[in-house]
Every structure is written in structure tokens, then in C-alpha cells.
Amino acid sequence: MPRSGTAATLAAYEFNPRSLEAGKKALFMFPAAARLATTDCGRMSAEQNTHGVDSAGQAPSPGHVLQASALTLSYGAGKPVFSDVSLHIGQQEIVCLLGGSGCGKSSLLRVLGCLENSDKVQTSGDLQFLGQALSEPHPRTALVFQQPSLLPWLDAAKNVGFGLDFASQPKIDAQSSSQRVQDALSAVGLDGQGGLYPSELSGGMAQRVALARALVREPMLLLADEPFSALDAITRAEMQELLVDLVHRWKTAALLVTHDIDEAILVGDRILLMGGKPGQIVREWRVNIPRPREADPVAVTALRLDILTALHSVRHGLAPQAEALNFSI
Asked: The pTM is what?
């Protein structure tokens, strides 16, 4: 029989074909040791600018929800997908991981969520969640993917509550579980609509249900892989505002993978730029522009241009310039 703790793979993470397959693998594996070998905390490969960005290579802090040092991922004997990646995410902080297609953003997110458990996957580095070594999916983390991947035979409320009774989840009674579901639906603006089925939901409503399904587990960290990329521009803007609001109200933290510069600027407290072959964190910005950021188009445009310049440098194999604009007001 599999260890009950590994059932968190299905309960803590979004129910979609890709994550479910990883979850099934983890459920029937008995790892003899953590797949992430413990190493000394390495220096961040991000280039430090002079405008409020945390210095590279700092020691783990009790204020960090997630701390990763010198992570490397490769498949079989192939070249690394990414190498020597170090990052941290603070409490109630939104970190946007920005980069072009194929740089390893989604692969990094899966490693951070401990979803890369195949025998063909080689990983190394140090990964800590809430100050403890992390080697399997944790029930206080939740993933949100591009597609809502709702179960069509369950209504919205039951989709949100799916997995709360898994063995890996904290034991709660039926009344508390129902209250959590209603609170999560209310938080994403779907109060009173829990009886709707996926076929009755718009794209934006379905993604709100997916967010509620993550929130109902009361996560300390949301890992989001381009969750709004399939939505129209108006709905996407609404969902971006909702994500920021939820992070602050539910006192969680978030890592948002995106290839949209404007989304990173409008949502993120910090922006990490990933690029190169193998992928690395090559630049970091702390965004101190007051919200709503659309109200300061000068600062937003200046930051966008600086990011575009760094992307151009990465694309042409040049080292991004260390000097950056001051994006605080």
C-alpha cells in the first residue's frame, strides 16, 4: 500500500491531466530519500540591481514561505532544462516568473511543487517550505494551471471541495468542510453559485472555481502556471485583480508563471526573469509602484522598457545590464 502522506499530490494540487498523472506516480512510489539533495545555499544567479532587490545568496529567512537554492533539472542523460536556480518567496508576496517559451518556467514550477517524480527526471539542489526540507507535495501548497480542469459530473461546490477528505489533509468535520467551500466560493465572487455545473460556467467563472478549489485548502503558497492566459483581455484583467486581492485577504503567497510582461508588472511584488539554455534566473526587479499600477503609466512604461531590454539581451545571448530604473514612487 502507498504511504498515505503522498496522497497530498491529488488533494493539494489542481486536478488536471498533467498534475494527476504526476500524482499517480507519486502515490505508488516509495522514495528512499528526498529527490532534492541537500546542498549549501548557493548564490542566486539573478543579477542584482540597485533599486530594492534583495541581495543574492542570502541565508534562509523565517519570513520565507519557500526557499530554493541551486536547483537543477534534467531528463535522463539530456542537457539540463534549467540549472543553478535559486529563489525565495516571502509571506504574502506575489513573485512573477517571467520568460519566453521553452526556458523552463513550468518545469521549475513543477519541481517547486514536487511533481517531478519520474525515474527519468534528475533533480538536485535544496528546497525548503516553511523552513523544512521539502521532498513531496505539501498540503499547504496548491497549484492552479492554465485550464480549470473541473470534474464535469460535480457541481462547482463539489469541485471546490474535492480532495478535502483525502488522508493527507487535516481532519475536519462535514460542517467545517462545507463552510470552507462556501467561504472560498464567496472569496472568488461566486457566492450562491455553487450548484452550477462546469458546462454552465463561462471561462472566467470556471477559473474562479479553480482558484476557490486551491483556496479551500488554506494554502500558504499558490503556484500558478499561466492561469489566465486562455481568458479574454477583460476577464484576464479582472482575474489579475482578484489574485492580488486574494493573496492579501487570505494571507497566502504566490508564484505566478507568465510570459506576459504587463501581467507581471500589474500583479507582482517582484519579477524574476528566466532565460538562457539551460534556463537560469538572470534578472530580478522589485516593483514598488503603488496599486493600482495603471494609475502611473510613466513608471509602468519605464519598467516595461527595462524588462524588454533585458529580454532582448537574453535572447541574443548578452548579459543583461546591471543598471536599472528606480521603479518606486
From this structure: 0.78
